[in-house]
Amino acid sequence: MRRIDWQLVRPSKDGKVTDALGLAEIIRRLVHKEARGLLSEEDRALLMHTEQTYLEGTTSSCKAVEAPVVEDDPHWQARIIDEFGDSDVEIDLAEYLDLRRKEPDCERCPYTSPYSLFPMDPCEFSAGALETVLVDHELVEQARQRMSPDAMRALAARLDQARLESRFRPSDILDPADYILKASYFLNFWADMGFGVLPIELDELIDYGAAEESITAITDGELSEPTTIH
Question: Which of 111, 137, 181, 209 has its CA 20 to 30 A from that of 69?
Answer without folding.
Answer: 181
